[in-house]
Amino acid sequence: MVVLGLTGSIGMGKSTVARMFAEHGVPVFDADAVVHQLQGPDGALLADIEAAFPGTTSGRGVDRGALAERVLGRPDALHRLEALVHPAVALEREAFLERHRDVPLLVLDIPLLFEKGGWNLVDKVAVVSAPAEVQRDRVLGRPGMTAEKFERILSLQMPDSEKRARADFVIPTGGTFEETRDSVRRIIACLSPAHDS
Question: Strands 28-30 and 169-172, how do they pair?
């Protein structure tokens, strides 16, 4: 089995690329989706997050906006949150790997792969990348996003140029969907030549 780490900065189109891998039958572990599940209604982390950050949860789960305001720009608070989230996500990831141990290729979609040492979990790394102006337009088009919040998020992420330099594959998302799909197909063919895409 080849484990491909998929990463990319905010607004680069990583979720779209992950779906493209899944559409070709490649199992994808979506770390963000797992976090949403763990923090959603009846999520396993709700009680611990409420204890650490009072007032950030309800019956609907974690209020992600309120929690973000409590941790962004506060390294000690962010570290406390990560100490709760990362071990829980790791357990889910191990279960995913076990369920798919017989496949030739799978993808671990990990947003902060380089920043948090996740490259040690994978055999190859693919970075999703778009021009900075495209990234900025995408992110600022999101509900509730501000230029200041975008800059704070960027400050926590490795620069795109450095991610690209460290990647085994770069998947461009600044052009057409078909161009991006072609990149995904080429990576699948390269890493699992027998794969029927």
Answer: unpaired
